[in-house]
Structures are given as C-alpha cells and as structure tokens.
C-alpha cells in the first residue's frame, strides 16, 4: 500500500492498479502496529524544521509492528563521498537532453513563524542536535539573513537548507504558476515556449544526522546506516 501527498502521483498508481491513497506523512491514517515494513524514500528532507522531521520518523515507527523494519532515504549534503561523485553530479555532463540550469536568484523566506510544533522535549533535542552539527563537518554555510539560496542543479550543495528549481516541461505557462521562467532550448522560435519554474524546499542531511534523529527515539533501534548514491540511509527496527 502506497501513499503520497500528491493526488496526481496517487492517480498514476491507480492507473497501474497499485493500491495508494493521498495523505500527510505527519498523520498517516493506518492503524498503529499494523505494518511489517515501511519505506520512506525522498520524503523527510522536504520538511522544513528539525521537529517536523523527527515527528515524521516517529509516525513511521508508529505504523510498525514490534520487530517490523523501516527503510529511510534522504538527500545527502555530501554528493562527493570517499572521492567518488554521486550519480546526481555525474549526470550534469552525461545527460542526452542537456539543458542549461538557471539560478533564479534568492527566494525570500521568513523563518519567524517556525516555532516548535511538538513537545518542549523535542525542541530541546532539536537545539542540541543543531549545536552538535554546527561544527562545519559537511561544509554547510549558515544562512544568517533568513533567505534560502536557490540551488544550481547537478552541482554540489553549499547550504543544508535550500530551494531546488523544478522546470515544468510542456504546456504554456500561467502567470500565477511561476516565480521564474526559462526558454526551452532547441527548435525554432515558434516552437520555443516559456516553461514555469517551481522551487522545492530541501534540507540535505550531513553524515550522521539522520542516524542521530532516529537514535533520539526510544521506540526503534538503528539496524544499519549507510551512504548510497548521494543519499543517507537507515534501516530501523521497531522495539
């Protein structure tokens, strides 16, 4: 059984005769302890606070029966690890349909209203974890002016918290859909059309960060932690 926040993606699953439904990862409408295994791929790095990322993993653990396991993948800050570039970096020059990526400037984003949405204990944990990670072990630059940098695709990360451009291909652009535009390269002037650019929030994880979040929960234990093609990954077991 699959779930996703996007109705369009869930509809595609239905067309392929898979069982899927729309829900929020912070509140999954499945009975506690009813799953043998859970998989969370490329989801948790989209949550914008440490408290919400922790709450998502706690919700994942809630679904598991005792002895059940969960696999989690998040995007890694380290896209070059042990002197090897990730597939994400390698595809910059290897793509057949290479397009010039645009840095659309810096998006304004106020963090003023991002208070803890969980218990004070979680907030204290969050502060401690962030302090532990501010040793510049992964080369992240602290964003002091509360603005999120816009990442240039297929390049190394300069910040842990950033916006990644999504260039929507095909169709004409509606004014309210975009915060930036680009011209699709190739073809005649008549065939070129403006394509909307959306910006997705990411928190890319430093080495050890995902494992530290998981170890802060007393209901699970980390079976395995590893790096895989630009992602940090853990396998959890429900206690």
Automatic annotation (TrEMBL):
Q: Name one Pfam family in it.
A: Methyltransf_11
Methyltransferase type domain: from which residue to which, for each copy?
A: 1-72
Alphabetized UniProt keyword annotations: Methyltransferase, Transferase
Q: Name one GO biological process term.
A: tRNA methylation
* Residue ranges that the Swiss-Prot or TrEMBL entry lists as coiled coil: none
Where do Basic and acidic residues bias regions lie?
87-102
Give the UniProt entry's GO cellular component terms.
cytoplasm; nucleus
Q: Tell me which Gene3D superfamilies the record gives.
A: Vaccinia Virus protein VP39
Q: What is this protein called?
A: ALKB8 protein
Say which species the protein is native to.
Picathartes gymnocephalus (White-necked rockfowl)
């Amino acid at each position: 059984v699959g779930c996703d926040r996007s109705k369009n993606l869930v509809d595609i699953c239905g067309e392929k005769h898979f069982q899927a439904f729309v829900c929020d990862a912070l509140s999954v409408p499945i009975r506690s302890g009813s799953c043998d295994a859970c998989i969370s791929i490329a989801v948790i790095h989209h949550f914008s606070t440490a408290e919400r990322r922790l709450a998502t993993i706690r919700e994942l653990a809630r679904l598991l029966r005792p002895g059940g396991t969960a696999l989690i993948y998040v995007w890694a800050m380290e896209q070059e690890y042990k002197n090897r570039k990730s597939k994400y970096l390698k595809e910059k020059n290897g793509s057949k349909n290479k397009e010039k990526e645009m840095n659309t400037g810096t998006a304004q984003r106020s963090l003023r209203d991002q208070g803890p949405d969980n218990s004070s204990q979680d907030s204290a944990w969050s502060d401690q974890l962030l302090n532990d990670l501010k040793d510049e072990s992964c080369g992240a630059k602290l964003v002091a002016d509360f603005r999120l940098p816009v990442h240039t695709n297929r390049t190394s990360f300069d910040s842990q918290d950033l916006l990644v451009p999504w260039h929507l291909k095909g169709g004409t652009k509606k004014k309210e859909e975009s915060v930036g535009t680009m011209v699709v390269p190739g073809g005649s002037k008549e065939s070129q059309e403006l394509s909307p650019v959306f910006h997705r929030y990411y928190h890319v994880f430093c080495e050890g960060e995902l494992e530290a979040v998981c170890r802060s929960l007393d209901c699970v234990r980390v079976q395995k932690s590893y790096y895989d093609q630009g992602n940090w990954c853990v396998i959890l077991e429900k206690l």
